[in-house]
Amino acid sequence: VGGHPKPQEGAMRPAGVKHIIAVGSGKGGVGKSTVSSNLAVALARAGRKVGLLDADIYGPSQPRMMGQTKRPASPDGKTIIPLTAHGVTLMSIGLMLPEEKALIWRGPMLMGALQQMLTQVQWGELDVLIVDLPPGTGDVQLTLCQKSDINGAIVVSTPQDVALLDARKAIDMFGTLKTPILGLIENMSSFTCPNCGHESHIFGHGGVAAEAQKMGVPLLASLPIDLDTRLAGDGGTPIAATNSPVAMAYAQLADRMIK
Ligand code: ADP
């Protein structure tokens, strides 16, 4: 952080967006994108105007998770019309360049694309823009926190020690960047056998709650390992858009965010 010049604050904040909330994680694969899409859908179901920006350059999964993969139109060649899915205004960095190009992007290209996502996309009036960050603590997180002065960040982790270890680094980064941590979300907290009802804690138990307490931030939700959540994400209709029990958990999370 120290070596980077302080960019102009607010330079990348879209004009009509009231709140920007970033969803980060220390590690990949802990469910950050799943939580981002479901939180966005749950907030939209609660009547809020919601945008979802997929800034996960290493694995942009929102087009698939939200079921919208077509390239966004740019009729004037200057601004981009975002997609809409499940009541959410959607844009993904993955839709900007052919997939195989993402691997060879250099820092300045990335920053250019991120800036474009925020300032050239016609987000319109939004109550909240959820930003699905790449995992870890790299340039995208740094630029976004400094230039778009986001309102707060949520950190997603599984209860596993290795995930928590990296989650702590993400929390520390947001602290250094003076981005308020809104809370932690424990994903894949438990698994209930659909046959016998036995509950097992595959990735451990209680670690994220203990971490939240230690940091003095709320534990916003504990979400189970759930086959329907995975199937829904893969199928392009987030579980929060359904009537499953997990959709209720996301509705409660959305309620907490609104309050
Ligand atoms: P990340 O964004 O942290 O890399 P993803 O949201 O892409 O993680 O999730 C990784 C994989 O795990 C996806 O296939 C997703 O469907 C699945 N997954 C995420 N959360 C859950 C959950 N609570 N139950 C079951 N599968 C999940």
Automatic annotation (TrEMBL):
<comment type="subunit">
    <text>Homodimer.</text>
</comment>
<dbReference type="GO" id="GO:0005524">
    <property type="term" value="F:ATP binding"/>
</dbReference>
<comment type="function">
    <text>Binds and transfers iron-sulfur (Fe-S) clusters to target apoproteins. Can hydrolyze ATP.</text>
</comment>
<keyword id="KW-0378">Hydrolase</keyword>
<keyword id="KW-0479">Metal-binding</keyword>
<feature type="binding site">
    <location>
        <begin position="26"/>
        <end position="33"/>
    </location>
    <ligand>
        <name>ATP</name>
    </ligand>
</feature>
<comment type="similarity">
    <text>Belongs to the Mrp/NBP35 ATP-binding proteins family.</text>
</comment>
<comment type="similarity">
    <text>In the N-terminal section; belongs to the MIP18 family.</text>
</comment>
<keyword id="KW-0408">Iron</keyword>
<protein>
    <recommendedName>
        <fullName>Iron-sulfur cluster carrier protein</fullName>
    </recommendedName>
</protein>
<keyword id="KW-0411">Iron-sulfur</keyword>
<keyword id="KW-0067">ATP-binding</keyword>
<keyword id="KW-0547">Nucleotide-binding</keyword>
